[in-house]
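User: Design a sequence. Structure:
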């Protein structure tokens, strides 16, 4: 059974940084593409970033490019999202998901990120 547990969210001021983590289990993490998606209040899911099973294959949404960095630690079965220069528009529940931007499916319970001005 795929299990994904996000952590690291919180309240941060505009311009601040947060690092999200996602602990994965129940599947071959090192062989899987992984993604971060988010859902802002009253809006649908928005894809944020993906990393391929070949970890050098990385993609970002235009809205976060240059500010967010996705990475993995295959030894710890953990996915990360380093978020810098946060804006109010980044306020959302962030989910990690198994799969790339076109195929992601199973998600965790999410972690809330709130950026205040």
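Assistant: Done.
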């Amino acid at each position: 059974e795929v299990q994904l547990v996000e952590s690291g969210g919180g309240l941060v001021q505009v311009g601040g940084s947060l690092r999200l983590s996602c602990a994965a289990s129940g599947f071959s993490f090192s062989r899987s593409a992984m993604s971060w998606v988010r859902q802002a209040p009253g809006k649908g899911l928005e894809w944020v970033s993906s990393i391929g099973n070949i970890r050098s294959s990385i993609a970002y949404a235009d809205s976060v490019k240059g500010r967010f960095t996705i990475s993995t630690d295959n030894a710890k079965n953990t996915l990360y999202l380093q978020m810098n220069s946060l804006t109010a528009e980044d306020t959302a529940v962030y989910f990690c998901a198994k799969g790339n931007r076109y195929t992601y499916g199973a998600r965790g319970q999410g972690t809330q990120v709130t950026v205040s001005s």
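DSSP finds no helices and ten strands in the chain. The beta strands are 3-7, 10-13, 18-25, 34-39, 45-51, 58-60, 68-73, 78-83, 92-98, 111-116.
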